[in-house]
Amino acid sequence: MKLAILSRKPSLYSTRRLREAAVERGHEVQIVDYLRCYMDITSHRPRVLYQGEPLEGHRAVIPRIAASYTFYGTAVVRQFEMMGVFPANESQGISRSRDKLRCMQLLSRQGIGLPVTGFAHSTKDIEGLLKTVNGAPCVIKLLEGTQGIGVILAETRKAAEAVIEAFRGLDANILVQEFIKEAGGSDIRCIVVGGKVIAAMKRQAKPGEFRSNLHRGGSSEKIRLTPEERSTAVRAAKAMGLNVAGVDLIRSNHGPLVLEVNSSPGLEGIEVTSGIDVAGKIVEFIEKNATPGNTRDRIRA
């Protein structure tokens, strides 16, 4: 099978591992910088071109779209869908998960556990917004942030008001969430592939930090999920319409809560911690599902 990995950097661990896993299973792999793709959009013969040549003969694509390039990256994925090429994740699922507000709304509609979350436009409504999330301490998140960037813990009401006013002064869109104290600065990253949790790890924030991202110095360890946590992760990925997803959960006094759903989860931390060949599992899923034209999005939102 001929596969394309849509990635800006072939040297990235996740890109390298996906390529290695596919080659080991006898597939032909091409790594494509999606920002250098351009598209011929016609009703009879849609095409994706790269370095002056049409990309042809691919049965599947694996999107590794960076958050800052979501708009153009998903357009490229959508063009492959128009050509009947199977995507590991469809463009609409990627778009849903990247919009944190839309993601939370869709998860809530499916009855999936979330931290109490508020969203407002005007700084005149800060008092009511904070009351919605039970006051301070609370977590303030930029809608466009990734890897813990743009996530702030406001320990007092005054601090929360100042941060919200500063962000709104920059015309930034933010979410405000309740702070789950009992989690103790830890969360759980679950990797869901084809409707099953194939790997999981617990991430712990370093001392003095509440964000558990490994990029921010957090540590990780293997973890055994409860049936409820496993079900929550699978349901969250399904709600987004993602075949491959990293679902971040937090343990609370009232059960597992979803923090985020990631359409391009990093593979290094989870593979090293769990010892599981996640890249191989993704390629195996593609082998079973990459039939021509299998690109229909079953969720409408």
From TrEMBL:
Positions with a binding annotation for Mn(2+) 1: 248, 260
Enzyme Commission designation: 6.3.2.-
Ranges where the ATP-grasp domain occurs: 104-287
Annotated binding of Mn(2+) 2, by residue: 260, 262
Binding annotation for Mg(2+) 1: 248, 260
Keywords: ATP-binding, Ligase, Magnesium, Manganese, Metal-binding, Nucleotide-binding, Protein biosynthesis
Details of cofactor binding: Binds 2 magnesium or manganese ions per subunit.
Ligand binding (Mg(2+) 2): 260, 262
Necessary cofactors: Mg(2+); Mn(2+)
Gene Ontology MF: a single term: ATP binding
Keyword Transmembrane helix found: no
Matches recorded under SUPFAM superfamilies: Glutathione synthetase ATP-binding domain-like
Protein residues bound to ATP: 141, 178-179, 187, 211-213
Entry's family note: Belongs to the RimK family.
Protein name, as recorded: Probable alpha-L-glutamate ligase
Classification of source organism: Bacteria, Pseudomonadati, Planctomycetota, Planctomycetia, Kolteriales
Gene, per the UniProt record: rimK
